[in-house]
Amino acid sequence: MLTPEEWAIVGLSLKVGGTAIVVTLPIAFGLAWLLARVRFPGKVLLDAVVHLPLVVPPVVTGWALLLAFAPAGPLGAPLLRLFGASVLFRWTGAAIAAAVMALPLMVRAMRLSIEAVDRRLESAARTLGAGPGRVFWTITLPLSLPGVLAGAVLGFARSIGEFGATITFVSNVPGQTQTLPLAIYSALQQPGGNAMVWRLSGIAILLSLVALILSESLARRVRRGFHVL
Question: Is the pTM of this model over 0.85?
């Protein structure tokens, strides 16, 4: 059984991961659509920037976020001036770090799914009088939905497991930024913390497995629905 403190850590991790995915999902889909369907100057550069968090050390990403959201930073200063708030040492900052690290995985999965949509189906719908919006909502989005779901789940799993960028950006503050990986790290440094490490590690693995199984189940239901149609 988990202690109340450990339940709070699990709840905070779910809150951070869920917020990161909800906020990032439309951004990731928009970027995936742009990279999959639109030709424009600088496309290769945009693709590289989007996937940069996958290849640079997470500490570097956290450091960049710290510079950006510092009180005098380009994003932190207007945030402080307009709302009198800061994301440093708060769960919202942890959610930002998780979102940035999850974004490349989400974009990649969604882009592959969008590229796999048969363009002839879209063309046929247009010849029958469907406008761009109707084609998108009735053909493109439903057919790419398995990839969107896969991207969301991969992003959630990545958010739950995020460590390096989070601890660099918003530190390890119990009750605010101490998610599962940070709590496991802290327990490893404490004498007699092995039991807590085992419990929290088991929860992290379980959450990841449940998310992956749920994603596959939803994707199969969507595919069965298309076969019926």
Answer: yes
For tokens 């057919």, name the residue.
143
Residue 12: count of CB within 10 angstroms of its CB: 21
d(CA 227, CA 215): 19
Q: How confident is the model at residue 228 (pLDDT cuts 50, 70, 90)?
A: very low
Residue with tokens 């997470």: 58
pLDDT of 116 higher than 90:
no
Q: Taking the CA of residue 81 as centre, how many other CA atoms within 13 Å lie in the half-sphere pointing to its CB?
A: 7
Alpha carbons 68 and 88: distance in angstroms, whole number: 11
Q: Look-up: residue for tokens 């990032």?
A: 24
Residue whose pair of structure tokens reads 């496991």 in the numeric block: 184
The token pair at 195 is 């039991």
What Å distances lie between residue 178 and 59, 108, 172, CA to CA? 16, 28, 5
Question: CB–CB of 193/199 below 8 Å?
Answer: no
